[in-house]
Amino acid sequence: MRLSAIGFQPSAKIKSNETLARIVSGLKAKGEKIVFTNGCFDIIHAGHVEYLSKARKMGSVLIIGLNSDSSVHRLKGRTRPLNKEDDRAVVLASLGFVDYVTIFDEDTPKRLIEILRPDVLVKGGDWKIKDIVGAGFVRSCGGRIVSLPFVKGYSTTSLIKRFRS
């Protein structure tokens, strides 16, 4: 059964960078606290779900910046991504605690962070706060940076290695 057959339209949560910037501006004007995270999210696993649900609790709106297929290819190699950007975006948008998903083509979300100006910038535990792209900008706007610990036992790379062996 297609999600649209039951009245759920995850694509309504998927926005262009520019459209999302206008939405965020309106939300911030209403006092909403914007949380932003980003990643490839090639194979969604329980570690991602826990990480994203924790990120959502840090504000009132959770936005995910999703690396485009070409960005993932440059960052992870010629065999990635396994899932196309549109499919990855729909899966993320289907999570109830995700408010918006936007795809970016650059290798880092720096430009996207600068146009969205989130209140909270969240990354996974493999990122030291000092190395998180956009951290300085978010701090300069009065925002907060958070590095959430990894959920032990979950890694897309290790899942792919296990599938291929």
Report on this model:
The protein has 165 residues and is an alpha/beta fold. The protein has a single domain (3-164), classed as Rossmann fold (3-Layer(aba) Sandwich). It has helices at residues 17-29, 46-56, 69-76, 85-93, 110-116, 135-140, 156-164, and strands spanning 34-39, 61-67, 100-104, 120-124, 144-148. It has a five-stranded parallel beta sheet with strand order 3-2-1-4-5. Strand 4 (120-124), helix 6 and strand 5 form a beta-alpha-beta unit.
CATH homologous superfamily caption: HUPs
Strand ordering within the main sheet: 3-2-1-4-5
Question: What is the total tally of β strands?
Answer: 5
How many individual domains?
1
Structural class: alpha/beta
Write down the overall mean pLDDT: 89
Q: Which regions contain 5 or more consecutive residues with pLDDT less than 50?
A: none
Radius of gyration (Å): 15 Å
Q: Sheet with the most strands? A: 5 strands, parallel
Share in β-strands: 15-25%
